[in-house]
Inverse folding.
């Protein structure tokens, strides 16, 4: 089912509680939105209406891919303290625009976690691919410098191993490696992921 919302930065709220609490909180959110230059505040009360509203959020990844037909999405994410979230998103959006790449942003305002979908194609120039890596690198370092973490949901895997030491320091990584070796002495569980091999040697 198509969602016909304006193509503009959009913030979704979901309120829980008693009828009075929800009414008070939603009214205050609407007032804050208007005070800060927000657009029209739309409401959804019925379950069917809420489902349609949230469909836009759940389809964000596919909408991001549609911006560059044929491209693949390389999702990355970070998480920062709520007090630094707006600043981090604004700086990241400016970085993306200046770099000239296609990389929509969406996330979870409530916990400080946001995602960037780096749209890349096998037909992209090496320069373009390099720019996506550079934007991702700056995003992670920006989040860490703001007291955040290199990933909120997607995990460290292999792509963010090098950032863990920046975030936690060598002593913490050696401690993690000691636990890993105690539980998995043969290195059978997720080999080559999360912890740099030099700490496991």
């Amino acid at each position: 089912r198509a969602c016909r919302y304006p193509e503009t930065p959009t913030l979704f709220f979901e309120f829980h509680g008693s009828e009075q609490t929800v009414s008070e909180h939603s009214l205050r959110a609407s007032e804050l939105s208007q005070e800060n230059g927000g657009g029209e505040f739309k409401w959804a009360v019925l379950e069917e209406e809420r489902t349609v509203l949230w469909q836009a959020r759940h389809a964000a990844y596919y909408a991001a891919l549609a911006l560059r037909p044929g491209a693949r999405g390389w999702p990355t994410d970070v998480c920062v303290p709520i007090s630094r979230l707006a600043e981090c998103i604004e700086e990241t959006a400016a970085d993306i625009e200046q770099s000239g790449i296609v990389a929509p942003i969406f996330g979870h305002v409530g916990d400080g976690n946001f995602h960037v979908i780096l749209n890349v194609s096998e037909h992209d120039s090496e320069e373009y691919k390099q720019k996506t890596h550079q934007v991702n690198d700056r995003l992670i370092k920006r989040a860490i410098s703001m007291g955040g973490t290199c990933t909120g949901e997607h995990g460290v895997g292999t792509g963010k191993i090098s950032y863990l030491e920046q975030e936690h320091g060598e002593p913490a990584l050696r401690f993690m490696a000691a636990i890993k070796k105690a539980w998995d002495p043969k290195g059978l569980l997720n080999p080559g992921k999360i912890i740099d091999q030099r700490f496991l040697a």
